[in-house]
Design brief:
homodimer, alpha+beta, Arc Repressor Mutant, subunit A, two-stranded antiparallel ribbon, 6 helices, WH_DNA-bd_sf (chains A, B), WH-like_DNA-bd_sf (chains A, B), DNA-binding (chains A, B), Helix-turn-helix transcriptional regulator (chains A, B)
Amino acid sequence: MIHYNGKEFICLLDFAMEFIRGKWKSILLCHLYEGPKRFLELQKSIEGLSQKVLNEKLKELEGEGLINKIIYAEIPPKVEYFLTDKGKELYEIIAPLKKWSIKYYPDIDEKGE
Amino acid sequence: MIHYNGKEFICLLDFAMEFIRGKWKSILLCHLYEGPKRFLELQKSIEGLSQKVLNEKLKELEGEGLINKIIYAEIPPKVEYFLTDKGKELYEIIAPLKKWSIKYYPDIDEKGE
């Protein structure tokens, strides 16, 4: 058992999986891997993700050190989110899951991507 | 958007992640990657996993083609679960998450493994 931040994890895999549980965090890492993005860009590019949930998930990812933000000194202020090395490495591990999906489900149709 | 089995997925990554959502499925893949195991072996080796949930998760993994079972014609009957190629390949993709955990959280302590 691993004890971390008041939570218990069965093993190192369980521990790492915690960072990408739920529907949105892996998808956000995927979108930010393409390059820094603004809040509205992320929201527009991810169907079904509300402003409230996006805000929560970005805060979680930032708190976990997977993403960071640049605040440009402009008027109106411009904020961009980008992956840290830790976030990039996490994404690079799970990215091959896309190929796995195609290999085992060749008929699934990814429209609009 | 991907439509599959009455569910909607944002992208191929989201689709694949669905197979390992929740706490137990990735852990079960990890334990079965070591070799075929019986129900009770799995239950004993994974702390906190109830018989009911283990039963559910094994059925889900079997339904998704990630594991299979061998029923030996013995008395009492012996049943062993093992990973299919599809399950093995899925696990091999996520296995490096363990190294990622150690790299970024070198102080976490994995007792009893």
